Amino acid sequence: MTELNAQKLRVIEAAIRKGATYIHCDPQRDTFECQLPLDLKLKHHVCLCVGLDLPVPIPDLKVTAEAVSGTLSFGGRKMFCLIPMDCIIAVGFEDGSGFAWEKDVIVDPTPERPMGKVVSLEQYRAKKAAK
Q1: Does residue 122 lie within any of the structural domains?
Q2: What are the start-end ranges of the E strands in the chain?
Q3: Which residues, in sequence order, are CB contacts of 42 under 8 Å at separation 6+?
Q4: Over the stretch 47-103, which tens digit does the pLDDT of each residue have?
Q5: How many CA atoms lie within 13 A of 85 on its CB side?
Q6: What percent helix, strand, coil does the chain show, rounded to 5?
Q7: Is 46 part of a structural domain of the chain?
Q8: pTM
């Protein structure tokens, strides 16, 4: 297990114990291992809500050093999902705070570039705060 994955594991486990947890991931980093609905798997930024006491329970939720997995609901349809740690770029907490890893990035779409450009999470937040 890499130190980065160990850190992600600790953050996600702590967040899940506190409540709803928002996993921000880039499925394009590992399209072979990442298991999501096809429309989400093709995106560079997906946010998934996981937790122990959600309105739609995830009884098989599992967090390991390799991945976060469980059966998630998408518009009422349930699907087993697996998000490798290498695809996770940030974790949001129920209180609105979060944790991102410096080397990880998100896609910031603009009217000029609807598919988005890759920016650091810090740059993205600064841009949103300036609006």
Answers
A1: no
A2: 21-25, 46-50, 62-63, 67-74, 77-84, 88-93, 98-100, 105-108, 117-120
A3: 27, 28
A4: 999 999 899 889 999 999 999 999 999 998 999 999 999 999 889 888 888 888 766
A5: 20
A6: 30, 35, 35
A7: yes
A8: 0.77
20 phi, psi to nearest 5 deg: -60, 140
The enclosing domain of 75 has a CATH number of 2.30.30.220
- Number of compact structural domains in the chain: 1
Q: Is residue 69 part of a domain?
A: yes
Q: State which residues form the domain around 41.
A: 3-102
Sequence-distant (≥ 6) Cβ neighbours of residue 33 within 8 angstroms: 67, 82, 84, 87
Q: How far apart are CA 34 and CA 128, in angstroms?
A: 29
Structural domain includes residue 44: yes
The 3-class secondary structure across 107-130, one letter per residue, is: EECCCCCCCCEEEEHHHHHHHHHH
Task: Report the amino acid identity of residue 93.
Answer: F
For residue 45 the two structure tokens come to: 């930024």
DSSP strand pairing (88-93 vs 21-25): antiparallel
By C-alpha distance, which of 48, 56, 43, 42 is closest to 15?
48
